[in-house]
């Protein structure tokens, strides 16, 4: 870079004072300062853009390595699966349909009820409703006691003044 010491800056200032004049020197100094500031911001933006592009290239390289490793894993899993299927078919080739297959009728998950693996059991809404605290029901306006229409009218009828 340019080596500017105090003596060189003083010499530049004296020459500028003589050439430009004392009236225009503050305005020129302000303009030069703003131009130097813009140049510094531009250089900082260029550096940041270069850094971003370098990081982007590194991320692309990382992505490629992850994709290649994923493909390798997929190929090994596929080859292992085909080997397993081949061995399974060889092992089960000698079995006949007369062999006994264990039954799961006695197990709890497949009993004769309506609960199958495709449908969930229905929830007991009374238990769920009973789990809500009374103070919350009172605040939310939930009726906790059954009341007939006539009883409700009698309860909420305005009382006459005596």
TrEMBL record:
<feature type="compositionally biased region" description="Low complexity">
    <location>
        <begin position="103"/>
        <end position="119"/>
    </location>
</feature>
<keyword id="KW-0812">Transmembrane</keyword>
<keyword id="KW-0813">Transport</keyword>
<keyword id="KW-0811">Translocation</keyword>
<comment type="subunit">
    <text>The Tat system comprises two distinct complexes: a TatABC complex, containing multiple copies of TatA, TatB and TatC subunits, and a separate TatA complex, containing only TatA subunits. Substrates initially bind to the TatABC complex, which probably triggers association of the separate TatA complex to form the active translocon.</text>
</comment>
<comment type="function">
    <text>Part of the twin-arginine translocation (Tat) system that transports large folded proteins containing a characteristic twin-arginine motif in their signal peptide across membranes. Together with TatC, TatB is part of a receptor directly interacting with Tat signal peptides. TatB may form an oligomeric binding site that transiently accommodates folded Tat precursor proteins before their translocation.</text>
</comment>
<keyword id="KW-1133">Transmembrane helix</keyword>
<dbReference type="GO" id="GO:0033281">
    <property type="term" value="C:TAT protein transport complex"/>
</dbReference>
<dbReference type="InterPro" id="IPR018448">
    <property type="entry name" value="TatB"/>
</dbReference>
<dbReference type="GO" id="GO:0008320">
    <property type="term" value="F:protein transmembrane transporter activity"/>
</dbReference>
<keyword id="KW-0653">Protein transport</keyword>
<dbReference type="InterPro" id="IPR003369">
    <property type="entry name" value="TatA/B/E"/>
</dbReference>
<keyword id="KW-0472">Membrane</keyword>
<feature type="compositionally biased region" description="Polar residues">
    <location>
        <begin position="91"/>
        <end position="102"/>
    </location>
</feature>
<keyword id="KW-1003">Cell membrane</keyword>
<comment type="similarity">
    <text>Belongs to the TatB family.</text>
</comment>
<dbReference type="GO" id="GO:0043953">
    <property type="term" value="P:protein transport by the Tat complex"/>
</dbReference>
<dbReference type="Pfam" id="PF02416">
    <property type="entry name" value="TatA_B_E"/>
</dbReference>
<feature type="region of interest" description="Disordered">
    <location>
        <begin position="91"/>
        <end position="128"/>
    </location>
</feature>
<keyword id="KW-0997">Cell inner membrane</keyword>
<protein>
    <recommendedName>
        <fullName>Sec-independent protein translocase protein TatB</fullName>
    </recommendedName>
</protein>
